[in-house]
Amino acid sequence: MNSTLYEHDFRLWIQQHIELLQQGRVNELDTIHLIEELQDMDRSSTRELESRLKILIAHLLKWQFQYVTLASQWQQFEGKSWRNTIIQQRSDLLDLLEDIPSLQRELPNAIAKMYPKAVQYAVDETGLSSATFPQICPYRTDLTSLSHVD
Questions:
Q1: How many structural domains comprise the chain?
Q2: Are 112 and 141 a contacting pair, CB within 8 Å?
Q3: Residue 5 lies in a domain
Q4: Cβ(106)–Cβ(49) below 8 Å
Q5: Nearest Cα to Cα of residue 88 among 29, 30, 149
Q6: Which DSSP symbol is given to 23?
Q7: Signed CA dihedral, 44, 50, 56, 58: sign only
């Protein structure tokens, strides 16, 4: 029955499993789907980490490699949206790492994985050549020390 409920009313399946766990009735759990859902939750956290890193790194690259050029061409260019995005992504990443501290050990791999995608994002946004940007990520993984745009 649990398996059928999982396929037809996921929310009710979750509520039922919460009750089963609270009552200690673990032998009645739909363990196959429960394991799948827990694995999906883990992957979701990793995807959020990677997505936020890609956006943060792309904006840091734009800030580092294009800001001066744009600011010299347009006196009114202040890069506020870039700065706000950098600040917001750093804050959201810190919140995520505070909520899920074990993701901290995933940072080096996530950065290495997302850096080429962040470069492509920056290339698409700026029109600069990918050769403009370093081959490997030039930014530290210590997000707590990166509270403002230099």
A1: 1
A2: no
A3: no
A4: yes
A5: 149
A6: T
A7: negative
Is 131 a domain residue?
A: yes
Residue 120: exposure state from Cβ atoms within 10 A (0-12, 13-18, ≥19): middle
If phi > 0 it is left, if psi is from -120 to 50 it is alpha, else beta; for residue 24 that is left
Is the CA virtual torsion 23, 25, 26, 29 positive or negative? negative
Predicted model pTM? 0.77
The DSSP-derived string for 94-114 is HHHHHHSGGGGGGHHHHHHHH
The string of pLDDT tens digits covering residues 36-80 is: 999 999 999 999 999 999 999 999 998 888 766 665 555 565 667
For 132-136, the CB contacts below 8 A with 24+ separation are 132/65, 133/61, 133/65, 136/112
Domain range for 83 is 45-145
Determine, yes or no, domain membership for 102.
yes
Q: Which residue type sits at 29? A: L
Structure tokens at 100: 């899920």
**Is 85 a member of any domain?**
yes
